[in-house]
Specification:
444 residues; Urease, subunit C, domain 1; TIM Barrel; eight-stranded parallel beta sheet
Amino acid sequence: MGRTLIKDAMTVNEGQVQKASVLIEDEVIAGIYDSKAPAADTVIDARGRYLLPGVIDDHVHFRDPGLTHKADMATESRAAAAGGVTSVFDMPNCIPQTVTMQALDDKFRTASEKCLVNHSFYIGATRDNIGLIEALDPDYICGVKLFMGSSTGGMLLDDRESLRTLFRAAHVPVAVHCEESSIINAGMERYTRECGGEPPVQYHPLIRSAEACYASTSKAMDVAAGTDVHLHILHISTARELELFSNEPLQDKQFTAEACPAHLWFTDSDYTAKGTLIKCNPAIKSAADRDALHKALTDGRIDVIGTDHAPHLLSEKQGGCRTAASGMPVLPCSLPVMLELTDRGILRLVDVVRLMCHNPALLFSVRERGFIRKGFKADLTLVSHGSDSWVAGPENNPSKCGWSPFEGERFFWKIDTTWVNGHAVYSDGKFNTTYSGQQIRFQR
C-alpha cells in the first residue's frame, strides 16, 4: 500500500477539533502529528477540510440475498462509501431470512466478495432459534434483530414469555423494532373505513402512531428489566418514547436509543410534497417530535445515528398506507444531513462524530474502529464545507434503486474521500471497486 499522509486536516475526534496530520501505513493509523509529520509515498493536502473517523452505521438493509432487484451488497456499499460510511451492520429480513448459521455464513461469504466497506450482520430472532442465539460466539456478529411490529415472515416476536426467554439467552445487543401491531391494525381499520378505501400516505403517522411506538418500546423495556440483556431500541420517532431513556453514561446503560436522519430532517408536513418517498416504519411524525429528537441528540438520551437504509424500486413505492412499500435509501446523504444540522445549531461537529462513529463502536464493542487513534484501523472520512455545495440527485446516488427522499436538497457539506482500512475506496465521486471491506470483529 505504501504510506499515505493526510496533512494539516482539522480532525474531529474524542470531543475535540484540532489541526493534525494522520499517517496511514499497512491499513492502520500509524501516527498522528500536530507539527512536523514524516515523509510518505502519497501526501494529501487537507488544509481547510475536516477529517472524521469513518462512520459506523448500525442499521442497513442491503437486500442481499433474495431481493437484489432493488439493492445488493455491491451497489449499497458504494452508497455507504459515498456517504462517508466505512462499516455497516446489515439486517436479517432478506430471502432467505438470516435466522440460521448457514444463512449467516452465506452472507459473510457474499460480503467478502462484493461489499466495499466493512460489515457485520444481525441474526433475526424467531421462536425456533433461541438455542442458536444462546450458543452464538459474541465476538462473531454485531447483534440480534428483534421485530416487535412490522415483521417480515416469521420474525414477529412480541409475547412476554418469548421475549423474556430471548433476553435471557442473548449475549450480544438485541436491536429492536418497536411498534405495537394491535394498535396499528386498529388504526388501519379505522382510517380505511373513514377514507372509504386505502388511506393516503398522510395518514401513515396516525396509523403507525406515537401510541403504537410508545406501547411497544415501554413493553420491551419492562420485560427486559431484571435480565442482563442490552436492549437497543431502533429508529426512535416520538417525544414520548424519549421519556423512557436516561442520559447516564453509555457504558452504564441497559437501554440505548438510535435515531435516523429521516426522522431528524422531515416532519409530517413533508408528506404533501414527498408522498410515499418518505413512507417508513416507524412513520415520520410531527414537528414537535422532530424537535424533541433534536434536543435528545445532545442531552445524552439518543446514543447513535443509524440510517435504516432500506431501498425499494419506485414502482414499489406506489399506493398509500397499505400498499406502498415502507423504507427509503439514505446512505449517501446520511452524514451530510447530520453535518447540515450543525450549521443550524442543533448539534456540534463533535456530537456528530460521537453519535455516528464513537458510540456505535463502544455500544457494540467494535474492535479497533470508530476513533482516530494510533494502531486503529484507518477508517477515515475527509469532508469539506461551504466552498462547493451540491444538490442530491440521481447523478450522485449510487443506490441501485436510483432515487432518494433527499433529491433536490442542497448540501454545503461534501464527502471528499473515504478510506476503508487505509484504502481510498471513494474519492471525488469515483470508486475503487477492486477492494473489499473486512468482516468486523468485536471484543465482548
